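Course exercise 7: structure representation. Students receive a sequence record and must write out the corresponding structure in token form. The form below is the worked example handed out in class, using proline--tRNA ligase (499 residues). Read each field label carefully; the graders check that inputs and outputs are placed in the correct fields and that the protein name is recorded exactly as given.

STUDENT ID: A-19
EXERCISE PROTEIN: proline--tRNA ligase
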Amino acid sequence: MAGGGKRKEVKKETGLGLSFKKEENFGEWYSEVVVNGEMIEYYDISGCYILRPWSMSIWEIMQAFFDAEIKKMKIKNCYFPLFVSSSVLEKEKDHIEGFAPEVAWVTKSGKSDLEIPIAIRPTSETVMYPYFSKWIRGHRDLPLKLNQWCNVVRWEFSNPTPFIRSREFLWQEGHTAFATKAEADEEVLQILELYRRIYEEFLAIPVVKGRKSEMEKFAGGLYTTSVEAFIPNTGRGIQGATSHCLGQNFAKMFEINFENEKGEKGMVWQNSWAYSTRTIGVMVMVHGDDKGLVLPPKVASVQVIVVPVPYKDANTQGIFDACTETVDTLCKAGIRAEADFRDNYSPGWKYSHWEMKGVPLRIEIGPKDLANNQVRAVRRDNAAKEDISRVNLVEQVKRILDDIHQSLFDAAKQKRDACIQVVKTWDEFKEALSQRKMILAPWCDEEEVEQDVKERTRGEMGAAKSLCTPFDQPELPEGTKCFASGKPAKKWTYWGRSY
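STUDENT ANSWER:
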């Protein structure tokens, strides 16, 4: 992208657009949107990306919300090292088998080989739990509830995609230990609800809450719950965030024991849960359009951009003053607003620029607006224009921003719901899969049947798998058969291709 800034100056107003359309070439469109929208910059190590301020600010807004919520739950932040010794990492067999292909190893220091290679954390269960066993002795040490905001490394070789699949990403990971299973079960769902709120209340993306199959659950855990999103354009589900009950498996491996009130020995029950910068990629994929990013107002670092539109003989200073005043008024009311006073760009170029960056609302002020003590408000999501009086500016802008959030959510839900198909048979399933649907099917809940579905659907697009069994279960009539095996069905499960 060298010399990008230079080239832009001579670009005509129309020269700012994207070269790919979302409907026609989704992958290229996505890459172009995240770069041109100034979310990321490509880095010289494949699968690693620079998060620019425009995306980092979105992460910080979600972080502020989530951090405050978990503190209300008496969860405390901490920080553990990035490095893991191989002996500890390999302690829980299923767990390390789940992560082995993605673990990055440090083997050298300067020119000399390390005697024992050191792993970089792909997740921190094995980093933290040896110390849980040290800190937890009796029932008074429980519950132990920790969280860390950090980076993890998973050395993916298939198809890296900014935000969605990168070799290093940012996340929070919560790790908690309880005396009873009931307490662990309760927390799993409390955290899952916070993840739903991040997607629905902040990112305006509808998600399904549910439980993962045995095959898709967290390696080494007892059960996994998740919020699942869907990308209509690619017909792929995407795991939005996960909340795992680890049971007592890790407690056994790492000897995390405690003595209860009666002096009896017991093993703790544990959870781990995480959401990552992947959330930002899902937001771009769901809401973005052929003009670029579309940011939901709650997470946009600039919610309102104010653009002066002076004509040749206009009272330019008056227009500029009105812009400054508008920004001040909005900022005082807690709305994130900025003005674009750059004089080397035309208003039309600025419109395209801020549209590409996804700013929810644009306010234009020209001579006519100045004369009428009004501003023109233009929405990013549907391009609707509205003249609003400067007298009750704040109330009007708040109303429009709320409406944008609701409209984005409703449009995303409508598009997703149109992709959901209920099937009963294998033929219907194959047909729905070829039409890129999110498929709800009755299932016998047997692991080899899911394995078989994967094998039978392997192809250029990638195999289908179970996405989740929704908590919100439709009625399952007596005698319903599994779509894949013909055995008696036990539950309704979502299936599809996924990221």
